[in-house]
Amino acid sequence: MTEEQRITKQKQFKVRLAQESDLPTLFVNAVNVQNGLEEFYLTFGTALPIEVRDIEELEQIDTIDARPVFRCVVTRDVMRQFIDLMENIYKQQTQQVDTLRRLQEQKEEG
C-alpha cells in the first residue's frame, strides 16, 4: 500500500464516553438550536416558573426568559447521530410509559 493510499483510507471508531457519572447534572427545560454552515449550536437553559396572580396577567405574557446553562457546537455528523439516537430512545421510553400506564389502569380496574 502506497503512502497516499494509507493517508486517504479512513477508519471509523466507536466512541464510548467514560466516567460520565462524574459529570454534574443540570436541569434543562428550554433548548435553542441554531445552525451554521457545517455545524449546529445547541443552547440549553432553565426557565423558572412565573408567578401569575390572575388570568389577565397570564394573558399578557408572551415570553418567559430562560437562563442559559450550557452551550455546545456539534458537527453535522454528530447531529445526525444525536437525532437517530434520541428518536430510538424516545420511542423506547414511550413504549415503556404506555405499558406502565396500561398496567396501572388494569390494576385500578381490577
Considering the chains and any ligands shown, give keywords for the structure:
single chain; 110 residues; alpha+beta; 3-stranded antiparallel beta sheet; 3 helices; 3 strands
User: Over all CA atoms, what is the radius of gyration?
Assistant: 22 Å
Structural class call reads: alpha+beta
Order of helices and strands: HEEHEH
Low-confidence stretches: none
| Distinct helical segment count | 3
Average of per-residue pLDDT values: 90
Description:
By secondary structure, the protein is of the alpha+beta class. It is 41% helix and 21% strand. It contains three helices and three strands. A three-stranded antiparallel beta sheet has the order 1-2-3. Strand 1 (30-35) and strand 2 form a beta hairpin. The longest helix has 34 residues, at 76-109. The radius of gyration is 22 Å and the shape is flat.
